[in-house]
Amino acid sequence: MDFSQYSIAAASTITVYVAYLLFRRSRNLRDIPGPLSPSWLFEEEHKRLRTALNNGFSASAVRTYLPIFERVAQTLTEQFDHFGGEASANLLPSLGRATLSTVTQAALGLSLDELGDEFISTNLLMMNMAGAPSPTKILQDAIMAFMPNAIRNFGRHLPIEPFKSLDKARFLSDKIGKSVIRDIRKAKSQGLDGVGAFYDQLVDRLQTNSLTEYDILEQTSLLLLAGQDTTANTLSFGFLELARNVEFQSQLREEIHASLGAGGGAAAYDNMPLLNAFLKETLRMYPAVSLSDRTAVQDHILPLSQPMMTTDGKQITEIPITKGQVVYLASGEYQRFDQFLLSQSRWGEDAHEFKPSRWLQDGPAHKGDSVGVYANLLSFYGGPRVCLGLLEMQVFVSELVGKFEFSLPIGDKSQTVCRVAFTLQPTLADGEKGALLAVKRVV
């Protein structure tokens, strides 16, 4: 039996991502500069950085960003008003710009205009490259993954468009990051407050030498790209499912009106059962990164949550992993496993159905071992930004569903499908990224 690569969806394999000293990201992503840099990984060797990020994205810290999220959500309402009367409208560009705006204000204390047109256009290009890699780009990545580091470093300086775009994105994000750090330091030296954003906390750690400026700059491109693309994609899939489930959409709208009418802050969003069941089910069905991988840095025994039968008829309860082997964590597969495929599946026999009710009361989703950092899902893996992304989605969905009705457009050309690329992408019939829905103002 060939154990060179595995596709594992059992809940117990989360140890692959907890044991950072045993497994690391594969080389084809570890050494890429710019937005797809190693800062995506948050591995154990980045303990100092992880501590700072965990503090900045804790539940209490994220609540201070609520006014930002609500202001941006209101601008989305203004944009969606322009969709009224259209047979179909592409929601993804507006959602992408809004999510970029929230992370820019919350993390950097900047507006979109302050990022500059050049950065925004380059950022969009990077997302399109990651979402729809050409056959040539896929071949380049596959070849480079097996090259020695010296050759890989040399290859990055070749006049190849993907590398040129990566270098430009890195240069622009570093420029923005340096400017923010400089402004914060200047303000603090004058006894003034910083920019009132997450980077204030990171710059404070420069003073104690617990972080370096390079550490902070590494996060700029990560936050600006990841904070925009993944959340916008997830929201697009969520609105698509609401359009397919008209009755649930109406019930959710009623809950939003009843819960937010008297205010209540962040706690009000947490206390809406239908809203949070909807978000959990959206994250279950459409994890932003549905397939990820690690390379073993030493021999290891990977336990299985239940026995499995190999192709040669042998029953095993664990898998021996040797140094250098690749382990794939298929979070998208795990989160859709039903009881016909896995007897201990927590999702039940209807795992392939979009069914928010599974999260209400004592549904099947609440049973079994605890997995992941949120709702027994692997959608966030072990990342520290779960609170930020969750509150952002709560606010956006509440604002938009509370005021608009979403329905499926008429015509085959308007269909939106799901495509697996670097992230899970909503894709139109012509292959372009997008999510087409009919939008009608109801409040």
UniProtKB/TrEMBL annotation:
Cofactor(s) this protein cannot do without: heme
Gene Ontology terms for molecular function: heme binding; iron ion binding; monooxygenase activity; oxidoreductase activity, acting on paired donors, with incorporation or reduction of molecular oxygen
UniProt KW RNA-binding keyword: no
Pathway, per record: Secondary metabolite biosynthesis; terpenoid biosynthesis
Keyword Manganese set for record: no
Entry's Gene Ontology cellular component terms: membrane
Keywords: Heme, Iron, Membrane, Metal-binding, Monooxygenase, Oxidoreductase, Transmembrane, Transmembrane helix
Compartments, as annotated in UniProt: Membrane
Main subcellular location of this protein, as a coarse class: membrane
Highest taxon of source: Eukaryota
Protein name according to UniProt: Cytochrome P450
Family: Belongs to the cytochrome P450 family.
SUPFAM superfamilies for this protein: Cytochrome P450
